[in-house]
Amino acid sequence: MKFAIHGASGFTGRLAVAEARRRGFTPVLVGRSEERLRSIAADGEAVRVAGLDEPGALAAAFEDCAVVVNCAGPFTALGEPVIRAAIAAGAHYLDTTGEQHYIRSVLDGLGEDAARAGVSVVPAMADDGGPGDMIAHLVAERVGPEVAEVVVADLRGRGVASRGTARSMAAVFEQGPLAYTDGRWHPAEETSGSIAVPGEEGAVPVAVFALPGVVTIPRHVAARRVRSVIRTEAAAMFSALTPDVVDSVPEIPDEEGRRASRWLMLAEASGEDGKRVRGWVAGPDPYGLTAVIAVEGARRLAVDGAAAGALTPAQAFDPASFLDHLTDHGVTWQVTPA
User: In what residue span(s) does the Saccharopine dehydrogenase NADP binding domain sit (predicted)?
Assistant: First the structure.
């Protein structure tokens, strides 16, 4: 199977290339710098150079690929030209963004073009957006048809971050978080609270934050309200990401620290009748798992296909099957009564 990895020489792109090779797939390395791409290319791997301001060249780079995996952020600034080039080339597309407003713009604005081309466009296939959307779908199913509220929470502890993540999260924080109420998205209110974390004693304080689930979950769960939170300490860290701070973050995080980091996405749904169900997905090495998630998503789009148009992760892939696949990589998941 041949698929393109755009941004292949970046930090996340290199991990995706390595995962594609491990799976026995043929990655086509695409980006702006031939020198950087050739420095990571293995024998027999195609290197294709195209800038975001060259739509024809970018589409040509994707022409014989079943899927385009975009790892080059921040996606708010850099993502749309890659999607449009993939659609023009007749290739499915997915990316590793966690940028809430960008994800909404893709799902709202590019679905018709993708459907006309007969391809699937799936943003948010990273460790937060993919598992968060999927576990929320499974939780809501257990509640029943009348879902009053879904809360999705990123409850990972301290860990390492790349400069690209810091840059993206600074943009996310600046744009402000959304919430969803009665059929519309709106700016979220600054509220606080606490959530019990699986594997930890007691509850931890949480704050509102712009997670992907707020703009993905309402597209497949008929909930009156959807909101998202993270640990308060993490929200404070993101609020401190000035341009100078972002520039000081290493482009490539310490590998030992990366592998020791853990992530945890939790979803809790409540029904109009008071029934409550919660579920969670947790695993090691958030960047390494993002590569696993993206490459497995690409495989499924190429082999199994999905509906044409712009889709959330839970719409594109069977949630339980996908989460089960991740258990081979140290991921655990569970859905239980709250």
Answer: 5-121
